[in-house]
Design brief:
Elements: H1 5-15, E1 21-26, E2 30-35, H2 43-47, E3 54-58, E4 61-65, H3 70-81, H4 88-95, H5 101-113, H6 117-135, H7 158-161, H8 163-180, H9 183-195, H10 199-210, E5 228-230, E6 235-237, H11 246-265, H12 268-311, H13 315-332, H14 336-349, H15 355-375, H16 380-394, H17 399-409, H18 411-429, H19 453-475, H20 478-486
Antiparallel strand pairs: 1-2, 2-4, 3-4, 5-6
Length: about 500
């Protein structure tokens, strides 16, 4: 008899039985269900199961928070329910049956950027570390540390006084450049992976967008002579699309749909030769002649609108709205769009004023959870969810905190939104810029441009203190009292 037999039986009953399960899989801490009829799942009864630490629905999946023992529990539950092992990709496909058009569109965007997140996070940390050793001057000419010289023009950096750190700084750029400048390769690969087409063709397409033969995208604005391919009857400019997001997305989908279409008309016996040939060459040509220029224009327009809005006289209003609304965007999945905008801002302006607000929002959500940890310090079951959730929030992953604690009570979620809004106004009002995206919580300060680090640190303190104080205050209001009554606490 299994260790989790009773809990598994209860979950199966309250989920609506085996017949209601279309697909089930698990991640590090959660069971992920795609249900034939989501209404049959009794979330309240499921949350009363001893092993269960919370439930929420996201991206068409009903998710049950189990904890670190989820893998063992999943195996026992799957055997009892008579459901087979299913991959996460299959679960995502099945989940789309519960999505509307907008949700499907956002899901597609998430499927493109989610595989790239580990590289983007590593790249952000690397650029942040280079920022610390190569841009922060805190040493005298004699090589002595002096915090009083922080930010002074004549202060020296670690790179200035140490050959080791100078070599490290130069070496780390090898990785940073590979991740951000050659990002189109990752995007076109991710699209081919998502569309089920030949991934190496996606990689080759991406390389043709950033080839060393082309004029680097960063050199285009001031270039007097742009090289070109001369076909006699037409000339095509040899422009690279380093760090460009939209041209890569457009090109990636053209290649994918060309390959899928050709598979339907070319016989299988010769498809290995002719499908890649007739898909890749037109895709590369279309990318450089049509989609590249169009995508560059679209990307520039979007980044200019965002940057101009945030640096205008009413930038504080944009910041207040974004800071307040970012957490709800995470719930809907719309936050994935900010990745593309951030990367475009980095390409156009050498930094992003959007990313600092995202980092502050994550910190604010974590701070609200910390307040709930203090308020509910005698609830051992909730501590098992809230403590890891707060830690992950401060490291940039907000979903466990939002779905496991803040949304369950509502008032801490509101407190975090308000705190995030106030912190965002401080950040944007002080023109804070980040060199890159990266870890979205407290370590995000490493990505902030040196001259803005102190004011961003102040914004971080606000994102910690305000949500905590508001959570304590709201817990005593009618909203807080009703939340505790609703949850039977």
């Amino acid at each position: 008899m299994g260790k989790y037999k009773d809990s598994a039986e209860e979950l199966l009953e309250h989920i609506g039985g085996s017949d209601n399960i279309s697909v089930v899989t698990h991640c590090a801490t959660r069971m992920r269900f795609v249900l034939n009829d989501p209404k049959k799942a009794d979330a309240e009864k499921i949350e009363n199961i001893d092993l269960v630490k919370g439930t929420f629905t996201n991206a068409g999946q009903f998710q049950v928070i189990i904890g670190n023992e989820v893998a063992t529990f999943y195996n026992e539950f799957a055997k009892m329910a008579g459901v087979g092992d299913t991959s996460k990709d299959e679960a995502k496909v099945a989940a789309k049956q519960n999505m509307n058009f907008i949700q499907r569109l956002i899901s597609h965007l998430a499927d493109i950027f989610t595989p790239l997140i580990p590289a983007l996070v590593v790249g952000g940390l690397i650029l942040g570390f280079r920022n610390v050793i190569g841009s922060i001057g805190m040493f005298t000419e004699a090589g002595n540390f002096s915090f009083a010289m922080f930010g002074e023009e004549n202060a020296l950096t670690l790179v200035d006084i140490s050959q080791f750190w100078a070599g490290t700084h130069a070496f780390l750029w090898l990785i940073g450049e590979a991740i951000f400048h050659f990002l189109p390769v990752g995007i076109t690969w991710a699209i081919s992976r998502k569309m089920g087409t030949t991934q190496i063709l996606g990689i080759v397409l991406g390389i043709t967008l950033v080839s060393p033969q082309l004029l680097n995208a960063y050199g285009v604005p001031g270039a007097e002579d742009i090289p070109f391919w001369d076909f006699g009857f037409a000339q095509v400019e040899m422009i690279g699309y380093q760090a460009q997001v939209i041209p890569a997305i457009l090109a990636g989908f053209v290649l994918a749909y060309l390959e899928l279409g050709l598979r339907k008309v070319i016989p299988n016996v010769i498809s290995m030769i002719f499908v890649p040939f007739f898909a890749l060459i037109p895709a590369v040509l279309i990318a450089h002649v049509v989609l590249g220029p169009i995508g560059w224009t679209m990307g520039s327009w979007i980044s200019n609108v965002v940057y101009s809005g945030l640096t205008s006289s009413v930038g504080w209003l944009f910041a207040a709205i974004f800071g307040f609304a970012y957490a709800p965007l995470v719930i809907t999945g719309l936050h994935h769009m900010t990745n593309a905008i951030d990367l475009q801002l980095m390409s156009e302006f050498g930094g992003t004023n959007l990313w600092p607000m995202i980092a502050l929002s994550n910190i604010a959500q974590g701070s609200a959870v910390v307040a709930m940890i203090i308020l509910n310090r005698k609830d051992e079951k909730e501590q098992q969810v809230s403590v890891p959730a707060a830690i992950s929030c401060y490291l940039g992953v907000t979903e466990p905190a939002m779905f496991g604690i803040n949304l369950k009570y509502v008032f801490p979620f509101l407190a975090a939104m308000i705190g995030s809004s106030v912190a965002a106004v401080i950040s944007v009002g002080s023109n804070v810029m980040a060199n890159s995206i990266g870890v979205g919580g407290i370590p995000g300060i490493l990505s902030i441009q040196v001259q803005y680090m102190i004011i961003f640190f102040i914004a971080m303190i606000v994102a910690i203190v305000v949500p905590m104080l508001l959570t304590f205050a709201l817990a005593k209001t009618k909203m807080g009292v009703n939340a505790y009554k609703r949850l039977g606490k």
